[in-house]
Design goal:
CATH class of the largest domain: Mainly Alpha
Radius of gyration: 28 Å
Helix content: 40-55%
Structural class: alpha+beta
CATH topology of the largest domain: DNAb Helicase, Chain A
Strand content: 5-15%
Shape: globular
Distance between the termini: 47 Å
Largest sheet: 5 strands, antiparallel
CATH superfamily of the largest domain: DNAb Helicase, Chain A
Number of strands: 16
CATH architecture of the largest domain: Orthogonal Bundle
Length: about 575
């Protein structure tokens, strides 16, 4: 495993960084009051909605919802993973990572990345020069692929024969580990890819992590992928995503297709935002990666039975990722056509028009359950509700989920409250083990102000007892307040950006960024007194709930002597609760 970077190092890094310098080196910023503004680099817009706060050291886009600190900005803008962004920013400040953060796994994986890169170069060279390359060249020309696109996507050729790559690169044990070689039962090694057109699969950093190979001729399987290796996990990766991200700004929309050649053919016709799954059903991890790039995703499938089945799996995988602000649509092609054949037949403009007419997830979701359902009968409507409930249970909390529940209630002709209370389970955040995420509307104003105060001034946490002192409170937003309080008490010297970094795994993370971005959430007057008032209100709320519980125990005759003394004490100091709404 990678060496863990200590939180204290990350805190120090964020405290020494100036986000204005980090963002300003990449985006043109203009002063707007106490903040700075720019056109958002993460989505297309004509007027600036992207704000950088020097005082809070974070950015927030009120258009697409992108938010974060300097680390996240570098991750998203420069397309780095977390560790690389930390190392890049630390070097910029002349800081060295602690030895405890040295990455043994990275050193172990480096030879695998290296041999995969060399293999890709070798396959490309064979496509240009090998005596047996003509069939591969003819295949690509027949598909209309230009030399420019072939070079951009790194297309290559693996010649017929048992051990061409083994002889060219040597180190058979490493080739085996990288998935480039296989082994027979009697222990003999052979090239995994033979007599195929090769499509290198790259991660977001551009490193080759695996290959897809399309057979030349009538051999089987038609497409062969790299096996699972230490660097390649086909349920997590997307072919063509790296190439989609090379055009400067993020694409405004991504289209998910089924094959490597579909991606290449669409790029050949100027449609540069296509990616493909790697021979498996679309996974939720892949959908999350797509939405990290842009909020609009079109899933493109053949219109036949197999295509519909694949679409149903993709839709099911997308449901847990359908947070507010994201849009998924489905494009079904004429039977017998795929994106490769259709774009060559109709042209790019016609294909783009098909994409514009793609159907929304909400429509396709309910339609898939209509087969054999008579909405004119109670039995039919009950069957629809029963079929739809498991999928609706996968939706995260938010407006979209509420609208989907309302649509089911409309179709089933029942009250939406009945749907929520008897059919659909409470919304589960991702991952399910974490508490339900709050929304801004469900958090009482007093608690919301207290959270905002803590985020802006983490030192206020010193005024509060530990979170466990408030017991189990289910008041809207209280769990969120206690979560922030715990993080702030662990390091009260932190600034806003560093505190939010510690809360990045919270299911409420997006809400916290929106909350701290709202200037009008700050209370007027004495901040410390306002914060103390909230703590007092929470303590009284805790006491009221405990007293209610003890009252019930008393009525049942179950109260112990210690509980009786506690009940008497709580009753004696009970006071009217201040209104914090």
């Amino acid at each position: 495993m990678a060496g863990r970077i200590p939180e204290q190092f990350i805190d120090e890094l964020l405290n020494r960084l100036d986000i204005v310098d980090v963002v300003g080196a990449r985006v043109e910023l203009r002063r707007a009051g106490s903040n700075l503004q720019a056109l958002c680099p993460f989505h297309h817009e004509k007027s600036p909605s992207f704000t950088v706060s020097p005082s809070k050291q974070f950015y927030h886009c009120f258009g697409c919802g992108a938010h974060g600190n300097a680390i996240r900005f570098v991750m998203e803008y420069d397309r780095m993973d977390f560790r690389d962004a930390i190392e890049h920013l630390a070097r910029h400040l002349g800081m060295e990572l602690p030895k405890s953060a040295e990455d043994e796994a990275a050193r172990e994986l480096a030879p695998i990345y290296s041999v995969l890169s060399k293999a890709s170069e070798q396959y490309q060279q064979w496509l240009r020069q090998h005596p047996g390359r003509q069939q591969a060249v003819d295949y690509l020309k027949g598909r209309g692929v230009s030399g420019e696109i072939a070079a951009e996507y790194g297309l290559g050729f693996a010649p017929a024969g048992r051990d061409h790559l083994l002889k060219a690169l040597g180190n058979p044990a490493l080739l085996l580990k990288a998935g480039l070689a296989g082994k027979t039962e009697d222990g003999r090694l052979y090239d995994r890819f033979r007599e195929r057109v090769l499509f290198p699969i790259r991660d977001r950093r551009g490193r080759v992590i695996g290959f897809g190979g399309r057979v030349l001729g009538q051999g089987e399987p038609k497409y062969l992928n790299s096996p699972e290796t230490p660097v390649f996990h086909k349920g997590k990766e997307l072919y063509g995503l790296y190439e989609c991200l090379q055009g400067g700004q993020r694409p405004s929309e991504l289209v998910v297709v089924e094959g490597y050649m579909d991606v290449v053919a669409l790029a050949q016709h100027g449609i540069r935002q296509a990616v493909a799954t790697l021979g498996t059903a679309t996974s939720t991890i892949q959908v999350e990666r797509l939405f990290q790039v842009c909020p609009n995703v079109v899933f493109c499938f053949d219109g036949d039975r197999a295509g519909r089945a694949a679409a149903a799996k993709a839709l099911d995988a997308a449901l847990p990722s359908m947070r507010d602000g994201r849009q998924a649509r489905f494009l079904f092609l004429p039977e017998g056509e795929d994106p490769d054949s259709l774009v060559r037949k109709e042209g790019a403009d016609a294909f783009r028009e098909r994409m514009r007419q793609a159907r929304p997830l909400s429509e396709v979701f309910f339609e898939q359950f209509m087969d054999g359902v008579d909405l004119g009968s109670m039995d039919g409507r009950a069957r629809l509700a029963e079929r739809a409930a498991p999928g609706l249970n996968k939706l995260p909390p938010g407006i979209f989920r509420e609208m989907m529940l309302a649509r089911l209630a409309e179709l089933a002709k029942v009250d939406v409250r009945r749907v929520e209370s008897t059919l659909v389970a409470p919304a589960q955040p991702q991952p399910a083990a974490k508490p339900r995420a709050a929304s801004l509307g469900t958090v009482r104003r007093g608690v919301r102000l207290a959270i905002g105060m803590l985020l802006r001034q983490p030192a206020l946490a010193k005024l509060a007892p530990p979170p466990e002192a408030f017991g189990e409170l289910d008041e809207p937003g209280v769990a969120l307040f206690l979560e922030v309080l715990g993080a702030a008490q662990s390091a009260p010297e932190l600034g806003t950006a560093a505190l939010l970094e510690r809360l990045k795994e919270s299911p409420h993370e997006a809400l916290l960024w929106r909350l701290v971005a709202q200037e009008d959430a700050a209370p007027a007057g004495d901040v410390e007194q306002e914060f103390r008032d909230t703590l007092q209100w929470l303590a009284r709320l805790r006491d009221e709930k405990r007293l209610q519980y003890l009252d019930e125990r008393l009525q049942q005759g179950l109260l112990s002597e210690s509980e009786l003394r506690e009940w008497q004490d709580l009753l004696a100091r009970k006071r009217p609760s201040p209104n914090r709404a």
